[in-house]
Write a structure and sequence with these properties.
The protein has 526 residues and is of the alpha+beta class. The strands form six sheets. Strands 1, 2, 19, 20, 21 and 22 form a six-stranded antiparallel sheet that branches. The N terminus is likely disordered.
Length: 526
């Protein structure tokens, strides 16, 4: 190559765009897809880089701000992992106040001090790991897929506490049931699904509705709740339709822990899940604990409908109170796995709050400022990006493809990189990437990456507007080269009756191209 040719190639590399030619089949194949007619008005941001050296393999608009959708969770998960450590476990204590009579009556209160544990026993398996389904129940109201529930007890931690109460000899509580949720200030999730982020969360702050068809057409459908609770007042009118009928369910929340469900479900169909988010997660947890105590033979005079009559102890009083026991969560590594595999908005939105609380702060905003310091320590140019939350749906969320590669390279330099990498969805295997590859693809199981989707409704044209579709992660290519990649597309007007899964398959196709066509050990030069 002439000196002039070398200078031209270097200039192209510096601005983040390598021209396509016969000598650069990867770039030509990528450009052939992203320059197609479906994306004339869209904005792409792409960077494929060598994982060891950071050298650019192929790029387009790698230093332009672009909406990341749930790829935001890569940043918030890295930050909490750096702040707390993979082995961190949430410790939630249970105290009592007052005296205990000889007949087992507590003349005082039971107090749970919330630790911020996002799952609080509701996903814990007998082996101590956290369960997940590839389609999480928090997305059930979108109605885009069947949502199987985990085979776990959503009130396991509360049942654990109820057993501790009985073990302490308490058979009746004349005082109140209290939950100290002062760890951090409640905030809102920056993603779809349940909205309220609180220091105490049980069953992701929702009640699951499981609707099954009756025995014959015209019969009432069978509706149950998970957890079973009197806290939710539910009015249902759902019939069983013919086998060939459509599923039609309308769920309405009416306030005051009331909801209605109307519609039909076809005969012989699989159970359908919907969720009812709770208005007051702390009061919800209190009600569930009262019900658990009663199931375990403890009489409770306080009403699960309220009001709360007693005052919480002062923070410096707990050292002098009898401790009945502690609920210990699985390690943080398990929480990261669930958060990233299923793209759990509520958990990721809690991460800035938990980072803040760990540092003695109280707000999500303070947590995000601490997150900036943690990301900077990982080598991320934080001044070039913007976040308004931890999940990916905030209006302020913007990153560059270059910053994603900085993040991945920073994490890959840490001892906990295998934990972080393995928490990502695996293409063709699990989580949000379980169904994006064609059968028998050689790339199946070889690509670890975080997905992202941010979609709104274009009322003007009565169709979807895909604000962001994203895929970012790491792989060892077919040529044996370790590669990090960031693929984003923003601003796609979807055709009528087409959803974002189309672009999900496009991004998976691009990842397959990177897997198959990245050359070994050198830049994909033009």
């Amino acid at each position: 190559m002439s000196s002039r040719g070398v200078m031209g190639w270097l200039a192209a590399l510096m601005i983040g765009v390598l021209p396509c030619s016969a000598a650069n089949p990867l770039g030509a194949a990528i450009a052939d897809i992203i320059d197609g007619k479906d994306y004339h008005a869209a904005q792409w941001g792409i960077l494929v880089a060598d994982a060891k050296t950071g050298e650019t393999i192929w790029a387009r608009h790698a230093d332009k701000l672009i909406a990341p959708a749930s790829v935001t969770k890569l940043y918030s998960s890295a930050a909490i992992l750096a702040a707390l450590g993979a082995d961190y476990r949430f410790q939630t204590p249970l105290y009592r106040t007052g005296g205990l009579r000889s007949d087992g009556t507590l003349i005082g209160n039971l107090v749970i001090v919330a630790s911020g544990d996002p799952t609080f026993g509701g996903r814990t398996l007998p082996n101590g790991r956290l369960a997940f389904q590839n389609q999480d129940h928090t997305y059930a109201n979108a109605g885009l897929f069947t949502t199987p529930l985990t085979q776990t007890n959503p009130v396991a931690a509360l049942d654990h506490f109820a057993k501790l109460v009985r073990r302490a000899g308490i058979t009746a509580v004349q005082g109140d049931i209290l939950i100290d949720a002062s760890l951090f200030e409640p905030t809102h999730s920056t993603g779809s699904g349940p909205d309220l982020v609180t220091p105490m969360m049980v069953n992701d702050n929702v009640v699951d509705l499981i609707v099954s068809p009756g025995p014959h057409p015209g019969a009432p459908a069978i509706v149950r709740t998970r957890p079973e609770t009197a806290y939710l007042q539910l009015d249902t009118d759902i019939t069983t339709g013919e086998k060939v009928s459509s599923t039609l369910l309308t769920l309405r929340t009416l306030g005051g822990n009331r909801a209605t469900v109307r519609g039909q479900i076809p005969l012989g169909s699989q159970p359908l899940v919907r969720i009812v988010p709770v208005e007051d997660p702390i009061f919800f947890a209190r009600a569930l604990f009262i019900e658990s105590l009663r199931r375990h033979g403890v009489r409770v005079s306080a009403s699960l409908m309220g009001p709360v009559r007693a005052q919480l102890p002062r923070s410096d009083d707990y050292g002098g109170l009898p401790l009945l026991g502690v609920y210990t969560s699985p390690p943080l590594s398990e929480l990261l796995k669930v958060t990233l595999k299923v793209s759990h908005n509520l958990y990721a939105s809690a991460f800035p709050c938990l980072i803040a609380a760990h540092a003695g702060k109280r707000t999500a905003e303070e947590g995000l400022r601490l997150q900036a310091n943690l990301l900077e320590d990982l080598g991320v140019s934080v001044k070039t990006i913007s976040f308004g939350g931890g999940a990916g749906g905030a209006a302020a969320d913007f990153v560059t493809p270059h910053s994603v590669i900085q993040l991945l390279r920073g994490m890959a330099s840490r001892p906990d990189w295998p934990i972080y990498r393995d928490a990502l969805p695996v293409m063709g295997v699990d989580g949000t990437l379980s169904e994006v590859l064609p059968p028998h693809s050689p790339a199946q199981g070889k690509i670890h990456a975080k997905t992202g989707t941010l979609i709104t409704w274009n009322q003007l044209n009565d169709r979807g507007l895909l604000r962001s579709k994203a895929l970012a992660g790491t792989m060892t290519t077919a040529s044996g080269r370790d590669v990090h990649f960031a693929l984003f597309v923003n601003g796609v007007t979807l055709p009528v009756d087409v959803d974002s899964s189309r672009e999900g398959k496009v991004l998976a196709q691009l990842a397959e191209l990177i897997y198959h066509q990245t050359p070994a050990g050198e830049l994909a030069r033009p």
